[in-house]
Q: What sequence folds into this?
């Protein structure tokens, strides 16, 4: 059944260097608009849901261009605001071989979203029109005003019986010195409201400070994730383990913890065209699997296939349909479709 799904977060302008040049070499850039919330809601709109973004864009032609781009992705702008004059930007240099891709952020803290006053949004009214709302740890890291907005929105969603999705998505550079200690109380608040959580054992160990005597990542995961689910009464916890191979291919395996048991996806190995946004594709797959009442095994394999396909598409935003992902789960693909 199709649901009304929103995300609360910043829209960012992506400025990409052509090919594999460095910023210092390039004389032109291509631009698009993205962000975790953009990626998740647009992917879910492709799966047949109605996707919204709760955010603030600048009140100028740049904001108009961003709003038009969101509509082209299938995102409803009903709950968008426009004020201020700035948008957060990041510059992307594509990696090649042993040189990794590089992202450089600029103007983020001064963006219209991150400077919007605390009373910008009527969260009570918005929450009453939605089934699911997605929140991200990147947004949680921005500033006290944004954190207060995020928490009020999550509370409003829960008060009206909606589903709260929280992606831990911890970024050390955003929290600064002693970041784990700063982040922990805010993460704990969000986890107390969350129904579906995206995280892995590293989040449990470093953000929440949970100890484990296990040594391998798989053993740590199996030890810690049930403890997190029990402590915060979380229905679903999901995430991925990624490895980068000697031939520069990536291997990805997803997990889904639910009903006191784990399901693991098949381990997928693939070359990478554009890695940015692939985690959001996995998240959208988990959300869709839960809303569609997929079995635990089908949901985690659907999400992993969605993540894999996102690595093959230029840009941050997942573009695969449900049927394309289902086919990737069961068929060897790659030849020309005729």
A:
């Amino acid at each position: 059944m199709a649901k009304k799904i929103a995300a609360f977060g910043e829209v960012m302008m992506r400025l990409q260097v052509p090919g594999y040049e460095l910023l210092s070499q390039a004389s032109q850039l291509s631009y698009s608009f993205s962000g975790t919330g953009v990626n998740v809601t647009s992917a879910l709109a492709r799966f047949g849901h109605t996707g919204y973004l709760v955010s603030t864009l600048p009140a100028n032609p740049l904001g108009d261009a961003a709003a038009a781009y969101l509509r082209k992705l299938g995102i409803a702008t009903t709950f968008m605001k426009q004020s201020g004059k700035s948008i957060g930007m990041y510059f992307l240099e594509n990696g090649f071989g042993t040189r990794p891709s590089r992202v450089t952020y600029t103007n983020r803290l001064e963006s219209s979203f991150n400077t919007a006053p605390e009373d910008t949004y009527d969260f009570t009214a918005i929450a009453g029109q939605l089934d699911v709302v997605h929140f991200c740890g990147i947004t949680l890291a921005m500033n006290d005003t944004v954190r207060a907005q995020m928490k009020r929105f999550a509370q409003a969603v829960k008060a009206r019986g909606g589903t709260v999705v929280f992606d831990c998505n911890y970024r050390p550079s955003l929290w600064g010195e002693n970041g784990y200690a700063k982040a922990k109380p805010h993460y704990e608040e969000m986890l107390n409201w969350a129904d579906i959580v995206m995280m892995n054992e590293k989040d449990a160990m470093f953000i929440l400070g949970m100890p484990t005597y296990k040594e391998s990542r798989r053993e740590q995961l199996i030890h810690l994730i049930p403890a997190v689910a029990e402590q915060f009464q979380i229905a679903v916890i999901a995430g991925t383990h990624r490895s980068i191979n000697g031939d520069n291919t990536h291997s990805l395996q997803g997990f889904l913890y639910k009903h006191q048991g784990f399901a693991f996806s098949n381990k997928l190995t693939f070359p990478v065209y554009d890695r940015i946004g692939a985690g959001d594709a996995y998240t959208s797959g988990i959300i869709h699997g839960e809303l569609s009442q997929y079995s635990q095994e089908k949901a985690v394999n659907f999400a992993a296939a969605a993540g894999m396909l996102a690595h093959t598409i230029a840009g941050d935003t997942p573009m695969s349909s449900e049927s394309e992902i289902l086919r990737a789960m069961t068929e060897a693909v790659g030849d020309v479709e005729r």
About this structure: The longest helix spans residues 144-159. The mean pLDDT is 94. The first strand starts at residue 4 and ends at 8. The radius of gyration is 19 Å.
